[in-house]
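Researcher: Sequence recovery benchmark, item below. Answer with residues only.
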């Protein structure tokens, strides 16, 4: 039996690939993202310092075996180290030519800053002396050595950072210098000694001098960090499972701090904020990796490297191109230049804003790097959602500036507008958000991995230090939290819990507005406005491609006569203005127009009430005649706005009492009048009260409403249908193509439809004859009562279309009243895992979904071209949309604002179920 392989050299990626069965994703799972990409770069000839990866399987085995290395792992690690020694010509622990390595964590998914890296392993008192001999640079060697003791102390031995930082600060103070760069060789030498004493003092043993002990302990520390609190928090927030484990990468050290022909930096191959195709990053000459991210010194923009190290810069550009071509993705890279020689230390898919993501996907498709389908799949519906999110109202922002409320500016690290009360530490921030329900903004000099829970609870994040690649910026971008970093004018006083810019003081709990798009911070609250879609040309392009995918015949496997394209996206719109917005957002139909909203308008409500309170048929007819022109005009406007696209209009749905004042109020008024002896108008009020009492029902949701009301009191819907068809006829006469579809709500038995639908169709025909025009129309029903779903075959013998009213269908299938459920127990159910999701947000596929699936099948068995859709909130939810694709809906209909999200989600479903995936591209 061959020995289990726990360790892979960077040059052994082929073996790893073979072991996992060829999929790159599985290689990443085995070697971690960092390790897999270091190996991949090695394979394609990008310069990477020699090294190896201990697998995530080794980590899992270590954690499972009670914190013991699995058999042979350590031997393999030592073996791999031998190979690295051969490749570098150096020897680990050998004073005459010591090999130094870094020990780096790296899980399948990049978890920025979540786990720790130890640099310069292999240094001890002897090898340090040897290195001094070799380099002749005592300062460099002891700077490296004290970093090792410090990182080892904090990462491996769990000492607080401050134990070292405080000593360093005190040392500088005594010496009267400000910056680390002012310290010389002797300083670092004595600080190294002091740091070693700190270890002894805190731990009761010496900093390990044996390099192999260092390596072993560091490897263990990385393994253990997988189960550290901050790693667990991050995984919970990012939805990463806890059983993946982390790999350990051992990498030959290269030094960016070996003088002024050395340096180190980080870069994105495209701008992660707006997606522009240009190198974007920072570097520092004569510095080690961590310095750039830590923001200790002021970094340089990457373009400047051209002047300081032209050869290495050109090589770097070529490598960036090569990596983008290879991965077909924007890359986020780390590099170090050691005495003029360029080394790549990391590459990964770069995190980016939603805006950048869309631009990059579209441009890469146009560049031919990826297909349009891949571009579509690379963008999530949530990202589209972010792009349609509110921004600060530019006019009010301008006034705020004139009023001197612009407080500070910094780097626009993560876009969006945030208004909230400020807090200065993660715990308080989280508590105020969760317990007090406040909108909070976390303000820190900079953030660390321990702050993530506070950042996630925040509406916005503000730091006074750090740049576009700082921890705060990276995390904020990933989670879509608006963020401004490096607002250097702000002085934060963590003790007094306040911040100031000159004499402008803001205390904890006070309000500010953070504009992550522009990098500005304002005092007080600034109102927000929704952005327009028209300006977002890249998004429009992407959505156009999404529509093309959905419109392709054969995207869906389906029985004869069913739709084989993807889903169409329609919108719910009650007014012509909504319909126009829906059109501009790309809706190709209206799936729900709620006519009763029109009844509530101030000039109409009295007529509606008069109609309800009528004592004779003639009175009622008169009131309805008065309403007719209003409704006709409403509908005509809709048909004109939706020229050529279907418009589903739902006949009156709610119980009549909703149009009357409340019982309690009216009763009170009547009693007060009687008590006060007021007679003026008392009779009318009493009559009103009597009517309200007559219409009062103990459970109106299940009472006289929808089709039942239409059967009991047909005059209202007869008026509505006349208005619909007269409006459609008028629009037709003006040259528009009207396609009315009349939707009857709340059907439970086919006989209900049989009574009412023919009566209404007669009116439709009569109007067309009167007006002398013809246009296509349909009559159909909502499926929102379980009995209707159960008898879909019969219902479809009358109804020409179905529209799932999933809100009511969910209420009635579960027996929940939504408002009561959400107020009293539903959220707890979801939190406790009794229900996997809120069924009012995502369709409950097993229950409600089963009824839907059945309805489509049985409905189409009766009427094969039955048009099926969904209206209501679920129509804008990506998971529910996917379900609608599966069961064979023609369309989903949602709020106009969610139409772009639904268009993308519909394309995702079409591609996914056709078996098209991103990986197939590569
Ligand atoms: P993180 O996940 O926090 O980015 P890394 O493992 O990438 O951690 O390392 C932290 C820093 O140390 C980075 O700037 C990286 O480039 C640098 N670094 C890691 N290994 C080496 C090495 N062998 N030589 C030089 N710098 C290194
Ligand atoms: Mg790290
Ligand atoms: Mg890194």
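Model:
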């Amino acid at each position: 039996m061959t020995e289990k392989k726990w360790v892979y050299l960077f040059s052994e990626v082929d073996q790893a690939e073979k072991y996992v069965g060829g999929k790159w994703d599985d290689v990443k799972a085995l070697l971690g993202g960092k390790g897999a990409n270091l190996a991949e770069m090695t394979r394609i000839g990008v310069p990477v310092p020699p090294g190896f990866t201990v697998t995530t399987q080794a980590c899992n085995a270590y954690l499972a075996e009670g914190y013991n290395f699995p058999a042979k792992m350590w031997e393999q690690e030592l073996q791999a180290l031998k190979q690295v020694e051969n490749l570098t010509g150096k020897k680990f622990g050998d004073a005459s030519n010591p090999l130094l390595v870094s020990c780096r964590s790296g899980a399948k998914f990049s978890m920025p800053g979540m786990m720790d890296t130890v640099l310069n392993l292999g240094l001890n008192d002897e090898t340090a002396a040897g290195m001094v001999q070799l380099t002749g640079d005592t300062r460099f060697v002891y700077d490296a050595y004290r970093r090792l003791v410090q990182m080892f102390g904090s990462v491996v031995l769990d000492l607080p950072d401050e134990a070292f930082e405080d000593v360093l600060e005190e040392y500088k103070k005594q010496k009267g210098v400000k910056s680390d760069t002012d310290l010389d060789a002797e300083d670092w030498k004595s600080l190294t000694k002091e740091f070693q004493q700190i270890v002894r003092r805190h731990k009761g043993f010496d900093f390990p001098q044996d390099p192999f002990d260092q390596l072993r302990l560091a490897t263990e520390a990385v393994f253990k960090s997988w189960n550290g609190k901050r790693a667990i928090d991050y995984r919970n927030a990012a939805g990463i499972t806890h059983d993946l484990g982390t790999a350990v990468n051992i990498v030959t050290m290269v030094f960016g701090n070996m003088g002024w022909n050395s340096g180190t930096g980080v870069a994105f191959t495209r701008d992660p904020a707006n997606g522009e195709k240009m190198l974007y990053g920072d570097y520092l000459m004569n510095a080690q990796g961590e310095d750039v991210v830590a923001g200790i010194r002021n970094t340089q923009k990457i373009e400047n490297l051209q002047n300081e190290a032209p050869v290495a810069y050109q090589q770097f550009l070529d490598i960036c191109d090569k990596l983008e071509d290879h991965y077909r993705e924007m890359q986020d890279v780390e590099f170090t230049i050691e005495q003029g020689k360029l080394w790549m230390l990391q590459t990964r898919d770069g995190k980016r804003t939603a805006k950048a993501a869309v631009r990059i996907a579209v441009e890469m498709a146009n560049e031919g790097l990826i297909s349009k389908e891949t571009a579509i799949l690379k963008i999530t519906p949530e990202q589209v959602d972010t792009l349609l999110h509110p921004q600060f109202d530019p006019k009010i922002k301008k006034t705020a500036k004139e009023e001197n409320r612009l407080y500070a500016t910094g780097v626009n690290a993560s876009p969006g507008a945030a208004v909230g009360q400020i807090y200065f530490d993660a715990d308080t921030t989280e508590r105020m958000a969760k317990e007090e329900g406040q909108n909070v903004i976390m303000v820190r000099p900079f953030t660390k991995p321990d702050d993530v829970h506070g950042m996630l609870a925040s509406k916005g994040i503000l730091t006074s230090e750090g740049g576009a690649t700082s921890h705060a910026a990276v995390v904020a971008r990933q989670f879509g939290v608006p963020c401004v970093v490096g607002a250097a004018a702000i002085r934060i006083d963590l003790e007094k819990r306040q911040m100031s810019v000159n004499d402008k003081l803001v205390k904890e709990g006070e309000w500010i507005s953070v504009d992550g798009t522009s990098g500005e911070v304002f005092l007080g609250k600034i109102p927000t406005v929704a952005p327009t879609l028209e300006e977002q040309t890249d998004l429009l392009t992407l959505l156009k491609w999404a529509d093309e995918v959905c419109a392709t015949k054969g995207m869906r496997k389906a029985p004869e006569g069913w739709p084989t394209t993807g889903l169409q996206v329609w919108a719910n719109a009650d007014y012509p203005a909504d319909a126009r917005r829906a059109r501009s957002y790309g809706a190709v139909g209206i799936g729900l127009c709620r006519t009763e909203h029109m009844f509530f308008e101030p000039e109409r409500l009295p007529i509606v009430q008069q109609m309800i309170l009528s004592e004779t048929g003639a009175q009622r007819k008169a009131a309805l005649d008065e309403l007719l022109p209003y409704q006709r005009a409403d509908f005509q406007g809709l048909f004109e706005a939706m020229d050529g696209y279907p418009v589903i209009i739902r006949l009156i749905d709610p119980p009549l009492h909703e149009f009357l004042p409340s019982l309690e109020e009216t009763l009170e008024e009547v009693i007060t009048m009687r008590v006060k002896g007021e007679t003026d108008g008392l009779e009318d009020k009493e009559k009103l009260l009597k009517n309200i009492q007559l219409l009062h029902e103990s459970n109106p949701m299940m009472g006289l409403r929808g089709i039942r009301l239409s059967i009991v009191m047909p005059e209202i819907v007869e008026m509505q249908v006349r208005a619909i068809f007269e409006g459609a006829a008028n629009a037709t006469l003006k040259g528009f193509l009207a396609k009315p579809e009349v939707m009857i709500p709340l059907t439970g038995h086919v006989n209900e439809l049989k009574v009412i639908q023919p009566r209404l169709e007669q009116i439709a025909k009569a109007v067309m004859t009167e007006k002398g025009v013809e246009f296509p129309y349909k009559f159909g029903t909502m499926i929102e009562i379980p009995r209707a779903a159960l008898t879909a075959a019969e219902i479809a013998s009358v109804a020409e279309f179905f529209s799932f009213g999933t809100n009511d269908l969910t209420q009635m299938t579960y027996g929940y009243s939504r408002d009561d459920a959400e107020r009293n127990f539903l959220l707890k159910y979801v939190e406790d895992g009794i229900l996997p999701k809120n069924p009012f947000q995502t369709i409950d596929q097993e229950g409600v979904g089963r009824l839907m699936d059945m309805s489509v099948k049985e409905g189409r068995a009766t009427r094969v071209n039955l048009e099926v859709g969904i209206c209501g909130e679920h129509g804008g939810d990506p998971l529910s949309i996917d379900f609608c694709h599966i069961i064979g809906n023609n369309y989903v209909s949602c709020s106009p604002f969610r139409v772009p999200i639904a268009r993308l989600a519909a394309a995702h479903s079409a591609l996914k179920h056709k078996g098209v995936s991103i990986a197939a591209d590569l």
